Amino acid sequence: MPLGKEVRSSSASGRLETQHVSSIITVIDSGRIVQSNGLRDELAETQRYYSILCELWRTADRTTGSGCCVEKLTDDCSEDKQQPEWLERELLSQNRRRHSITQGDEAQMRKQHPIIDSTRRLCSLKIDETISLDNLQKLKLAFEEFERGGSRSIDAKCFGRIVKKCLGLPKTSNAQIQRLFKKIDYLGQGQISWGEFCTHMMHEYKEKQETVRRSKQVAFTLPASMKTLCHGIPIVNIHSSHDGTIVTVREDGVVCCCSPELKPLKTKHLFNEGPASRKSKWASDFILMTEFNKLMIGTGDREIQLYELSTLEPYCQINALETVPLTLDFGCTGPDKCYIVYGDAEGCVTIILISYVGDTLRLWNKLPEIENMPNIAIDDAVLFPNVTFVRWKVHQDWVTQAKYFHSFQAVVSSSKEESTSLVIGCVLPLTDAEQQLDDIREACYEGKTKKIQLSWIPQLRASCDQTVFNISKGVKTFDLCQKHSLLVTGGMDRLIRMWNPHFSGKPNGILKGHSAPITYLHIIPENGQIFSVSIDCTVKIWDIQDQCCLFTADSQASGIHGDISACSYSSAVKSFYFAADCIAVLSLKIRPRLHSRLTVSHDETVMCCGYSEEFRQVVSCSEGSVVKVWDFDTGRQVFEFGGTHDQSAITCMAFDPKGRRLITGGRDGCVKIWNFNNGQCLKTLRKDGECHKVCDCIFLQVHRTFYVMSVGGDRKIDIYPDIPEGLHHVQRPQPSWQDDLRSGHTEDILCVAQCPPSLLATSSYDGEIIVWNVISGRIRCRLVSPLLAEHQNVEGLDTSVPSIIFFKNSKLQHFSSATALLSAGAMGCINIWNVLSGSKLAGSFKAVRNASQQYSWIQFWVPRHRTLVFAFLSPIFKIANQALGSFVANCFFAYTSKFQQKITKLAKTAKDTLLYAADRIGYIYVYNMEKFTAGQKSPRVEGFWRAHTSQITGLQIVDNDQVVLTSSTDYTVRIWSAHGEYIGTFGQSESWNVHISSSWKHPAVPYEVLIDPLSMPHHEILNVKTRSDYIDTDKTGAHKGELKALSWNSQAC
To answer: What are the WD repeat spans here (predicted)?
Structure first.
């Protein structure tokens, strides 16, 4: 590689070679930015961090024109922006006789709700996004002053002074600076060094880049759909019509029209068989003239033939060409004007301009026929007043591709000869103005018809009429885009070069990744992407802006094999078509468009969520191995990082006791520890040998030592000491307990829970619960979930225990130690165990809606659908709907669950007084456990509501703010009041404040919950027979974009 070039790795086996630009991404990826461990020279390591970080800022400055990060989070909390509507309503509600807001009102509001002011200050400016290169150098000098004073690190107070001074932000709040300090000091040591500061900034910047790249991710559905070819004749080209119909032409002239799914629609042999002594005619290329309903084919007999596209009947042909048209193109330049362009083996590009196309072709259609085809020789065709002919000598070798681009008013052609690898030239001669004036004068003023004698001697363009690109080993394929002002070329050297089409000196970038010559390139302007295909059947998708590879599909993954004779991308159906050993189609994966009223937090299933009290942030993890960090007080996304478990799903998460580190477990069998504020992986915890899925993990303390504990598919308890400053990034577990090895679980362990100081409980797929002494590692007792009589003979009954929780409350009656263990049982049951006194089952109850509560409801009659719709709302909504003229009434319902869905998550309040249970169809039940006795059938139900439309995967109570966090497989993370009032969904456009109810979504409910049939309560009036199908609760989807109305019997209405 020449000097001054570096290679930047990308996410999909592609890389970019840039000219004279030093990239830091390679250093970040391969350098493993880690803390100094005493074995290296700390000063040299810190200087290395600083050098990389400086280059990072220079790169960002070149990319964005500023000294800040490439992708800044939108600041919706800024002081100078318009106040949210809920804040205006709250201010006006303070004085009902006022109709406008003053600064005094707002100041008074801040006094009443200090959280508004503090939240707004924290959101108004993000320090780490305002640091320029100059600021960075000032910070470095400030840190060096402390080092010269003998201190290798500084505390939070000194850090605050440095930040305010170096960034020129004297009025920046101390709380905001403290938050940044805590993000860097994830171990809570109270000190940070210059190296730690640089490391934090680099990781944060890298993850923001990856977040932008992840938003552009695209992929094909693999493997490809195939249609076997029953012949060995190559297909010369593939094109698609506006409606997505695929047209292919073989060398022997057989045309096949297929549906986008490759179902044959029409097949016809176009070439008539000649005498036996004559060679068969063969097709060199073809193009669709969809504007004129024609199919144009170039043949080896030096002809251009036109057929009706709808019937494939012969229409006319131009014969007696000087050379064989190897590559054809067609372009419309007006309502009834077009160019026909073809390249030949002599390196010439021939252009035929036809005006009044319809009339001209109709005249040619009436000419004498040759072999059942109306025929006109090219010498006669150019005599028509509507036809202009020009032949350019462009290349020294045969033309590999020739295309007309109307947006550039130019013809682009390529060849494998280096000196004229690609040429962008004018269509007609533009420089001889004097000759053009003479032609006009002769034709217009003298009234003479110019006699034209066709000359096949090619013309040479003037240097100012063309742009010549000299490329090593020539060009096989290219594409040109006006929107991005981009020319891309590919050929035998396996490189994709990106050019400014107006300058041929040096390419703007070189994309590397193909291991075979490139045979096809296509630019997708609307998505800013480049599609490329090499002769080894490898397909890649590149991002134009980031100049990186987004997706790669090799022949093994796609199933496409053989020599590619033709390929084409259809924008109508967003699919790639290939002709090799078979006809194949690769379809782009299209993200489903959600209903306008639906809001999602992730693009895939949310597996878990949690709350960090230290930063007042919510963290959620998805099946796509993406972690998102949300601001608890507003619902805004703060940060995101992905690829946490090598694209394997994250299955569980936990926080360390200080709430500054995140622990995640995945299907890849690894447990990882993160600084979730910058995406840095601090430790990887895994066993030797084969790894099994991790189902649950916790952070626990035994005496003064902290441990990370994980359980899962290996059916053993893995314990890792928490050694933050260990020498090794990968850490192995301690030896297993002897009782665990001899008589532990025999099925996958699904859940683990601790009861300090010494109790630990684990539950498994077969319904067994084992209580351990965490200090000795011995089994204390075994518990087996009982089955009710009506469940004894149920086939395929799910007896697993996905959630367990310890309950410690001195007011629990009939529990000698006031310690109980609650577990999720079969068919919606919750079991209560007395683990310290006999290890017996103390009680069992079903999570059912069995309380009589007062609700408001509205009924609507929809005549068109003959449907009666009930909307069950809270009393707050009553007045509003009366104003709308709807019939509102109060009634009592006895809520009893019809579905008896399994409980998936259990949670409790801080004082162990309330129990929250969540089930598979998204319901949450709240029970008062304070006065529950073993003789009672069920604890008192405090309330229930439906939070999601599918299984709840995360449930946590935030006691200080009296709210509930939930996550679900329906892609959402939501926040509720302790009584089930809907506050909002993380990721929604409107912000909220958890302390101001007017900012909540309540009394509204999530749209998908409102329209879901399973949200209807169980009442006798709703039990009438209907014509609707039985609802299978196991098949309820995560998203429902349309209302599934119940078809009520007309007699019942």
So the answer is: 511-552, 599-640, 643-684, 742-774, 945-977
Question: For residue 112, is pLDDT > 80?
Answer: no
Q: Is residue 350 predicted with pLDDT exceeding 90?
A: yes
Q: What gap in Å lies between CA 319 and CA 267, rounded to an integer?
A: 25
Cβ pair 862, 869 in contact under 8 A:
yes
At position 865, the amino acid (one-letter code) is H
The residues with which 8 forms a beta bridge, in sequence order, are 16
Query: What's the DSSP call for residue 113?
Result: -
The residue with tokens 């010269």 is 148
Longest dimension (CA), the chain: 120
If you average pLDDT over every residue of the chain, what do you get? 79
Strand order in the sheet with 387-393: 327-334, 337-343, 348-355, 387-393
- State the DSSP H helix or E strand holding residue 31, giving kind and residue range, or none if neither: helix 25-31
Using only C-alpha atoms, the chain has a radius of gyration, in whole angstroms, of 36
Alpha-carbon gap, residue 722 to 510, rounded angstroms: 45
| Among candidate residues 1039, 947, 950, the one with its CA nearest the CA of residue 986 | 947
Domains along the sequence of the chain with CATH: 127-217 (1.10.238.10), 270-443 (no CATH), 904-1022 (2.130.10.10)
Give the start-end residues of each E strand in 600-703: 606-612, 617-622, 626-631, 637-642, 650-655, 662-666, 671-675, 680-685, 694-702
Sign of CA pseudo-dihedral 863, 866, 868, 871? negative
Q: Which residue do the tokens 């012949």 mark?
A: 231
Q: What is the dihedral of CA 62, 65, 68, 70, to 10 degrees?
A: -70
pLDDT digits (tens, 9 = 90+) for 750-781: 999 999 889 999 999 999 999 999 999 999 99
* Token pair belonging to 111: 């006094």
CA end-to-end distance (rounded Å), the chain:
80
Q: What is residue 450's predicted lDDT score, i.e. its pLDDT? A: 43
Q: Taking CA 872 as the corner, what is the angle to CA 866 and CA 873, rounded to the nearest 5 degrees? A: 135
- Cβ neighbours of 348 (radius 10 Å): 22
Q: Exposed e or buried b for every residue in 659-669, given b needs 16+ CB within 10 A?
A: bbbbbbbbbbb
Which residue's structure tokens are 């040619």?
364
Q: What Cα–Cα distance (Å) separates residue 639 from each residue in 209, 212, 627, 631, 867? A: 11, 12, 8, 9, 45
Tell me the one-letter amino acid at 422: L
| pLDDT of 296 above 70 | yes
pLDDT band at 387 (very low <50, low <70, confident <90, very high): very high
Instruction: Give the confidence band of 648 by pLDDT, cuts at 50, 70, 90.
Output: confident
Residue 741 φ/ψ, nearest 5 degrees: -70, -40
Cβ–Cβ < 8 Å for 251, 263: no
Say how far apart CA 787 and CA 247 lie, in whole Å. 63
Total-model pTM: 0.74
Average pLDDT over residues 103-123: 48
Question: Minimal CA–CA distance to 305: which of 239, 369, 218?
Answer: 369
Per the DSSP assignment, residues forming a β-bridge with 47 are none
CA distance 548 to 8: 9
- Contact present, 125 and 172 (Cβ < 8 Å): yes
